[in-house]
Design brief:
The protein is α/β, with parallel strands linked by helices. It folds into two domains: 161 residues, Rossmann fold, CATH 3.40.50.300; 70 residues, no CATH class. The chain has nine helices and ten strands. The strands form two sheets. Strands 6-7-8-3-9-10 form a six-stranded mixed sheet, with helices on both faces. Helix 6 links the parallel strand 7 and strand 8. Helix 3 packs across helix 4 and helix 4 packs across helix 5. The longest helix has 18 residues. The chain starts with a strand and ends in a 23-residue tail after the last helix.
């Protein structure tokens, strides 16, 4: 029986086995609902990306998962314990069930291969039964879907703008119709206008196709705009998890309030990150 929960992460911990050991993710528990955009916020180094990589078993030594589980509740009704999958099972699971847009993804395209050929590689690897014409048609359809346009199918990455390259990476992540997309800082290095276009695109695609999103960024105001719920991380722990509107209006944790206060208002007084955006009497 299909539940409303797509992913359950329980007591998840990751340690970097160096001297001394560093606990990058500490006993994190959260649930992701079907069709939901869950924002994962926090300053650089708080463990956001490590958590995302750990869920997909993409971590490399010296990172070690020391406790916990990540269970994927497939729409077929099957519960998949990701940590228990074999290498071959994990290879089939990634991109088919869960895909990822990596940090700095717009620079991840092969500079000497055409965009269409790189999309074709996804289908050749994971859908070998598709004929060449079918793979081409699906690749062009994906480029149309993300707003790049099928006329760019034969373009090289350097012929595209940064925003268009990012859209190509989103198209690749969507190619196999996964139920979950993890997006790690997908708008980094893009100007604010292109950022907004990408955010609108993600929201529209989510509504159209019904997949869930874990959206990772240090930019809390951005998450307030796009997310259904937001999880705030500090020192490897989830310190607050609530609907985006609640985070904005009634944040409970002091760290969350400080994050909100660290972004200056265009019209209000200047804030102070150390005091959570509040001036004290006598401040200049």
């Amino acid at each position: 029986m299909t539940t409303d929960t797509l992913l359950t992460v329980a007591d998840f911990s990751v340690v970097y086995d160096v001297e001394p050991p560093v606990e990058a993710v500490s006993h994190v528990s959260l649930e992701l609902r079907r069709g939901e955009i869950l924002g994962l916020a926090g300053e650089s180094g708080c463990g956001k990306t490590t958590l995302a990589y750990g869920i997909q078993r993409l971590l490399k030594p010296p990172a070690v998962i020391t406790s916990g589980s990540a269970v994927f509740h497939d729409e077929s009704g099957e519960d998949v314990d990701i940590n228990s999958l074999t290498i071959d099972e994990m290879r089939a699971f990634r991109w088919n069930k869960v895909s990822m847009v990596f940090q700095g993804a717009m620079n991840s395209l092969n500079p000497v291969a055409r965009v269409g050929d790189q999309l074709d590689d996804v289908f050749t690897t994971h859908r070998p039964s598709l004929k060449k014409a079918e793979r081409t048609d699906e690749g062009k359809r994906l480029l149309d879907l993300v707003g790049v346009g099928r006329d760019r199918y034969r373009s090289y990455p350097h012929e595209l703008s940064g925003g268009m390259r990012q859209r190509v990476m989103i198209a690749m992540a969507m190619a196999l119709k996964p139920q979950l997309m993890i997006m790690d800082e997908p708008t980094t290095a893009l100007d604010v206008l292109v950022q907004r276009e990408i955010l609108i695109q993600i929201s529209q695609l989510r509504e159209q196709l019904g997949f869930s999103v874990i959206f990772i960024t240090h930019d809390l105001p951005l998450l307030l705009e796009i997310s259904d719920r937001i999880a705030v991380m500090k020192d490897g722990k989830i310190v607050e998890l609530a609907p985006a509107a609640t985070i904005y209006r009634q944040a409970e944790h002091e760290y969350t309030r400080r994050l909100l206060g660290s972004f200056p208002s265009l019209t209000g007084d200047r804030g102070d990150f150390i005091r959570g955006g509040q001036h004290e009497e006598g401040d200049q």
